Amino acid sequence: MTITLSAHPALNPLVGQLAAALPIKGLYYPARRNPGSDLPFFSDLPAMLQATSPRVCAFLSPYADLHNDVHTCLQAGVAVLCAGPVPKADQPIASGGIHHGSPLFAKAQQQRRNPSFAEPVYLRLVAGAQEPGLLPAWWAICRQLAFASDLLDETPAQVHLCTNRHGRAYQVTLTATAPSGASIQLVVAPQPALAELTLLGRGGVISASAAQSGITLAGTKGTHVVPDAATPPAELAWLRDFLEKGNPPSEHAGDGGQALLSGLRRALRTRQPVLVNL
């Protein structure tokens, strides 16, 4: 079984972790120079497919011509897995769902479903975009919204988006109200190391951040911390799940992802908050 990856050079540390655990035989990105990875690097996708004969190509980064490269893989009989929605996709693509392999998500969901936590009231997520540019910021906010929807077990019908930029650094804020009335605030910032979660329920609070070890739980019985041991990246479980089950993840990029991208572009153009129907 052979796997190939497509990833921006900023994801080299992640690529190295995945290559140490899985049979990854090639790395592709539409750039002219080797990004410094130990994997065989290709700037031409057909050349990589011919040289490695992969079963799966996992796209970890978005870029303008992604939809054409996905089509090239599918035409060659190579299964495709994408970390986010595919712009201009003309067919369903297995995408998203990485958060299901995250220990943070699993622990937060477990505590969220504890009867003592009661109904959620407020959720705030902060994440850093892993690469510069609008499309990586878009993928990041899509992943945050999927995380929020699965954690709350509900999805808002509408969201408000605010966006600003400095060069190729983007900051995105999404606010929404879930059908239950819970308030949602999602933030994507240019600093890759950012990761924060705060979930307020009628019976307690769940919080975590990259600056602390573990998840803090506060309720009527006091406050305690659930330790967080060193864990592999969520992308590893995501890829293994795809390979073992032989089926695409349950989450698919649809009109919601495209609507968010259009909303981000409108917010940049107008420099005003915009309403997006999902």
Q: Tell me the series of helices and strands, N- to C-terminal.
A: EHEEHEHEHEHEEEEEEEHHE
Mean pLDDT: 87
Number of helices: 7
β-strand number: 14
- Count of distinct structural domains: 2
Task: Identify the strand order in the major beta sheet.
Answer: 13-12-11-10-6-9-8-7-14
Helical content stands at 25-40%
CATH architecture of the largest domain: 2-Layer Sandwich
What does the main sheet amount to? 9 strands, mixed
From the alpha-carbon coordinates, what is the Rg to the nearest angstrom? 19 Å
CATH superfamily of the largest domain: Dihydrodipicolinate Reductase, domain 2
* Terminal Cα span: 38 Å
Outline type: globular
DSSP strand content:
25-35%
- Uncertain stretches of 5 or more adjacent residues: 249-254
Main structural class: alpha/beta
CATH class of the largest domain: Alpha Beta
CATH topology of the largest domain: Dihydrodipicolinate Reductase, domain 2
In summary, what is this structure?
This protein is an alpha/beta fold and 278 residues long.
Give an account of the 3D structure.
31% of the residues lie in helices and 29% in strands. With 278 residues, the protein is α/β, with parallel strands linked by helices. Helix 4 (103-112) runs parallel beside helix 5 (134-152) and helix 5 (134-152) packs across helix 7. It is globular, with a radius of gyration of 19 Å. Mean pLDDT is 87; it is low at 249-254.
